[in-house]
Every structure is written in C-alpha cells, then in structure tokens.
Write a structure and sequence with these properties.
Elements lengths: L7 H33 L2 H6 L12 H7 L2 H32 L7 H13 L4 H10 L17 H14 L2 H9 L4 H9 L4 H16 L3 H6 L8 H16 L11 H39 L6
Length: 299
C-alpha cells in the first residue's frame, strides 16, 4: 500500500483535530467517571470535595444498600417491559405505515407524508393530548406508555426514505407476478432487505423508551408501574425518604451516618441505572451512524 505524503498543513490540521476530539471526549467522560468515583468513595471524602477523578478510601457499602432497594428493581423491570414491548410496537407500526408511503403507485401518499411532517412542527398540546388519553381510559395504565407514542414521525420518514432507495418497485412487481400478495411481498421481500433500517429505528425507539421521563410523569400514578426514570428522579430530588431508601437503610442507624451516605446512595443508584445502556452503546454505536447516513445520496 503506497504511503501518502502529508503536507505541513495536513499534519497541523490532523493534530488540531485529534486534540479537539480528545478534549471533547474527556469533557463528556469526566462527569460519568466522577459519579462512579463518588459512589465508590468514603462519604466523608465526598462531602469534603476531595474526590476529583479516582475513588478515595473505596468501599462498597452504598452498593449493598442499593442492591437491597426493592423499588429500584421494580423500576428496572418496568423499564425493561416498556422498552421491549414498546419498541416491538413502534417498529411494527413504523414499517407497516412507511412501506406503502414508499411505493410510487400508492395514491395520496404525498398528502399523507405532508400530514406526518406537519405533526413534527405542530402538535395538539399537552392538555388536549392528556384529555384524549383520559377519554380512552389509558391514564394510569401501562398502555399509556406504549400506545400514544407508537410512531415517531422522524423514524417513519427515515424508514420510508430507506425503503424508497433500497426496495425498487420492479422488485415488488416481480413478486406480484410470481403470485405473492401484498402481505407475502412485505414479509418475504421487503423485510429481508430492511435489516439495517430495522436495526436503526429499533435502537432509536429503545433508547427513547429507556430514557423516557415525561410520559410516566404525566400519565402514571401507581408506584408499581413507575419506570426507572421516575425512581431516579425521586431519589435524586426527593431525598432518601421519598426515594424509598429508608427501609433499606437499616445498616446505618444513626442520623449522622445517614446524612453522610445520602449523596453516595444517589450516585450509586444513578450508576446502577445507567450502566446497562452505557455497556450496550459501544456495540450499537454503528447503528447511530447508519441512522445519520440513511437517505444520503449515492455517488
């Protein structure tokens, strides 16, 4: 392989570029590293402000308390339920709607696409939406987490663009000439060719469900149905009693000890809730890049 000689300007540009990337990466990583270090440090060191990068006088007492916190694990189970079932509904409905919109012979597809784009710019508002959900009897039910946001207009446009570019009309017509009906064509021809876009929208929808705070805050009242985001909000903003750590705090009997460990418990809870999605992200990062590139012109 022939080595390409770089000019001084290219070397300078690469040095500046890599330096900027390293600085931005460190800025993004430092809050995560700091929270992790605080959760593992002795609480006296955290209150003194001596924890800057590495844990000081490490201990695992806070994680033992978090592991015994039942409400956190109920929130975990609810979040997994909403993420898995909600993403399945999202992907299925997005594909079913985007496929006919990608076909040139479907009448009115331009008008329907225009209405979908309109919803990206203007919405009915929070109060009318809440009244509709209430009239449908979905307030304080798990369906309120799954049905109202069943289709994302942005993901629908991405999917339609991908199907238009990668599933030509001639291929669908050939399947019809072989005797395949619309359902068989969609299942046997379109879906096998849609693997990349299915992975992209699955990731987008799943991350949205995992991080969703506003929807359960608006529609859910029963703690047994709260996802992990609500539990974390109560822990970080409502204190130990509202967060539910009081019963799990039996190991620390004195008020002074409870005060010392209060911040560490919040940091540990944040880490336990964030680690799964952070561990998965490096393996799924390429799908984010594919999502950005969907619809790009081919040279």
């Amino acid at each position: 392989m022939r080595h390409i000689r770089q000019s001084p300007a290219d070397i300078l540009w690469n040095a500046i570029n890599y330096t900027a990337l390293v600085v931005v990466s460190l800025v993004c990583l430092y809050p995560f590293i700091w929270v992790l270090s605080c959760s593992l440090s002795n609480p006296e060191e955290v209150l003194k402000g001596t924890v800057l990068l590495w844990p000081r006088r490490p201990e695992l007492a806070t994680y033992r308390v978090v592991a015994s916190f039942e409400r956190l694990w109920i929130g975990y189970a609810n979040t997994i339920y909403y993420t898995v079932l909600g993403t399945a509904i999202n992907v299925a409905m997005t594909l079913v709607v985007s496929y006919p919109l990608s076909r040139t012979w479907v009448r009115g597809r331009g008008a329907v696409s225009g209405l979908i784009i309109f919803t990206m710019l203007f919405s009915g508002g929070m109060i009318p939406t809440y009244l509709v959900i209430k009239m449908l009897g979905m307030v304080n039910t798990r369906w309120a987490m799954l049905i109202p946001g069943a289709i994302s207009a942005w993901n629908l446009i991405l999917t339609r663009t991908y199907l238009t570019a990668n599933v030509p009309d001639e291929l669908v017509e050939a399947a019809a000439m072989d005797g395949a009906n619309d359902l068989r064509t969609f299942w046997s021809v379109v879906l096998p060719l849609s693997g990349p876009i299915i992975a992209v929208i699955t990731l987008f929808y799943a991350v949205g469900h995992w991080n969703d705070l506003f929807t359960p805050l608006l529609y859910l009242n029963e703690p047994k149905m709260f996802p992990l985001t609500i539990v974390l909000r109560d822990i970080t903003m409502g204190g130990l009693s509202r967060g539910g750590f009081t019963d799990s705090f039996a190991a620390f009997t004195s008020g002074k000890t409870r005060f010392l460990y209060s911040m560490n418990l919040k940091y540990a809870a944040i880490m336990v809730a964030s680690l799964p999605i952070m561990c998965l992200y490096p393996f799924l990062q390429r799908y984010f890049i594919k999502g950005v590139m969907v619809g790009a012109l081919k040279g």
